[in-house]
């Protein structure tokens, strides 16, 4: 995904459109989720979105919404209980779908998906109304660079998925926790909402090249199948990939959580390597879950010691066994790699002590869903000094004709882009006729005879 200064300045332009007013959009409003093990339900889908399976809804961002997003982005999720009282997993995804599609299937091989945030639902009783919902907030400012990446948006539309998994269970599944008496015969598990908010932070990143490599989406890391590990009996996964150009300021965004009869309650060291060098060691959990107890309105043996009948205290030592808290987010771990050269690279994660034992002490239970992607960018602002001369445009704002001043360096080509990245004017001189353009913000890209390109923002009155 080769970029020029144009990409950086377009991102800056998009961010500037949010400067006058903060942006907020409610993408999902109390949509109903259904039994994850049941066949696709036939219930109506709210207007403007699709249901790709019982546990997942998706909605496409409009060009106007993307143009209004600045350089910060917050995901606000809210869940309300229906007929599932157990703790489950959920997540928010960014999906890149081939341009123009009005729908897609969940496992479509033509899409790209990255996980932006993961959470664990609490034990919730729909008959308890205080609190009536559980909130989760994710700060994902780096995603704005992807949304403003014109190389990606030239081929893909951006969709947002909100997923929540669950089911009522049965007596043999061990998932029944005193379902409310209004639930027999029902398959609805909860309601979910998602709001995106954005601002333009003047102290934040203001115009970045972007390089994105999705590496894994919820890969089920486990040691008892070759679909879950490199080597049977070892919990290890290696992902090899190639960068076709150098990537500055590269970072890995990694999400893992531990699931299974034993692995949920035994903490393990996780080792992450990049290009055969260890870059991170972490052990999930270990912090008190008491701050999230308020959302667990159905009694359970996580928050209550079911032997003594007493609530667990608000100390980290009392929770030294836990990998995550019902009602809390799963961390997104950001691993800084620095500048990466073009060529082959490898990511590897290992959890050598994981056993994946079921209740009978036999192998074959549990998994660690792992999502990871690589992103890099370089910050490049408007170019004032570019070699033999200085680049400026006047007047700015402009009514009709703008003129490029570039010292003794001649202009070879001029292109003007609107907020959607579309070319609205091209010329070969230092004058730009903007009389036919609508009022608003534009980007001017000038190519000079010394083979340097530079960009400027300009406002059309």
Short description:
With 461 residues, this protein is mainly beta. It is built from four helices and 27 strands.
What does this protein look like?
The chain is mainly beta and 461 residues long. The chain folds into 3 domains: 204 residues, Jelly Rolls, CATH 2.60.120; 134 residues, Jelly Rolls, CATH 2.60.120; 69 residues, Immunoglobulin-like (Sandwich), CATH 2.60.40.1220. The chain has 4 helices and 27 strands. The strands form 7 sheets. A 6-stranded antiparallel beta sheet has the order 2-3-8-5-6-17, with no helix packed on it. A 4-stranded antiparallel beta sheet has the order 1-9-4-7, with no helix packed on it. The protein is globular, with a radius of gyration of 25 Å. The N terminus is likely disordered.
For the largest beta sheet, what order do the strands appear in spatially?
2-3-8-5-6-17
CATH class of the largest domain: Mainly Beta
Structural class: mainly beta
- Named CATH topology of the largest domain: Jelly Rolls
Shape: globular
The CATH architecture assignment of the largest domain turns out to be Sandwich
How would you summarize the topology of this molecule?
Blueprint: H1 5-17, E1 23-34, E2 50-53, E3 56-60, H2 63-68, E4 74-81, E5 89-98, E6 112-120, E7 134-139, H3 143-147, H4 150-153, E8 156-164, E9 188-198, E10 211-221, E11 236-243, E12 247-256, E13 270-274, E14 277-282, E15 304-305, E16 310-311, E17 329-330, E18 333-340, E19 343-350, E20 368-376, E21 392-394, E22 401-405, E23 411-417, E24 423-427, E25 431-433, E26 440-448, E27 453-460
């Amino acid at each position: 995904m080769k970029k020029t200064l144009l990409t950086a300045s377009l991102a800056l332009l998009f961010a500037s459109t949010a400067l006058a007013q903060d942006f907020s959009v409610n993408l999902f409003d109390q949509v109903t989720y259904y039994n994850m093990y049941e066949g696709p339900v036939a219930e109506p889908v709210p207007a403007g979105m699709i249901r790709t399976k019982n546990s997942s809804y998706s909605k496409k961002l409009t060009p106007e919404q993307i143009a209004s997003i600045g350089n910060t982005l917050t995901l606000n999720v809210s869940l309300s209980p229906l007929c599932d009282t157990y703790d489950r997993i959920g997540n928010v995804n960014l999906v890149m779908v081939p341009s123009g599609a009005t729908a897609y299937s969940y496992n479509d091989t033509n899409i790209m998906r990255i996980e932006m945030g993961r959470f664990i639902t609490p034990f919730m009783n729909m008959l308890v109304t205080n609190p009536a919902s559980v909130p989760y907030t994710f700060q994902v400012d780096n995603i704005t660079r992807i949304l403003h990446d014109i190389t990606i948006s030239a081929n893909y539309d951006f969709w947002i998925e909100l997923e929540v998994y669950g089911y009522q269970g049965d007596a043999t599944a061990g998932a029944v926790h005193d379902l409310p008496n209004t639930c027999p015969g029902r398959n609805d598990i909860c309601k979910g909402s998602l709001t995106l908010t954005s601002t333009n932070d003047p102290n934040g990143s203001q115009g970045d090249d972007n390089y994105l490599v999705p590496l894994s989406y919820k890969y089920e890391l486990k040691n008892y199948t070759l679909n879950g590990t490199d080597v049977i009996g070892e919990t290890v996964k290696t992902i090899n990939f190639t960068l076709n150009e150098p990537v500055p300021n590269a970072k890995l965004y990694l999400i893992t959580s531990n699931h299974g009869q034993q692995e949920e309650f035994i903490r393990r060291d996780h080792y992450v390597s990049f290009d055969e060098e260890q870059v991170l060691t972490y052990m999930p959990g270990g912090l008190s879950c008491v701050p999230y107890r308020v959302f667990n309105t159905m009694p359970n043996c996580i928050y209550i010691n079911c032997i003594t009948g007493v609530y667990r205290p608000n100390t980290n030592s009392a929770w030294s066994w836990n990998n995550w808290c019902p009602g809390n987010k799963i961390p997104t771990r950001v691993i800084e790699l620095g500048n990466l050269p073009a060529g082959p690279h490898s990511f590897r994660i290992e959890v050598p002590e994981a056993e994946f034992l079921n209740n009978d002490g036999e192998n074959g239970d549990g998994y660690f869903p792992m999502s990871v992607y690589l992103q890099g960018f370089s910050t490049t602002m408007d170019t004032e000094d570019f070699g033999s001369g200085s680049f400026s445009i006047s007047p700015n704002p402009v009514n009709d004709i703008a003129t490029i001043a570039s010292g003794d360096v001649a202009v070879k080509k001029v292109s003007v882009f609107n907020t959607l990245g579309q070319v609205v004017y091209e010329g070969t001189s230092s004058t730009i006729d903007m009389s036919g353009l609508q009022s608003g913000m534009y980007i001017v890209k000038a190519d000079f005879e010394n083979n340097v390109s530079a960009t400027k923002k300009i406002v059309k009155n």
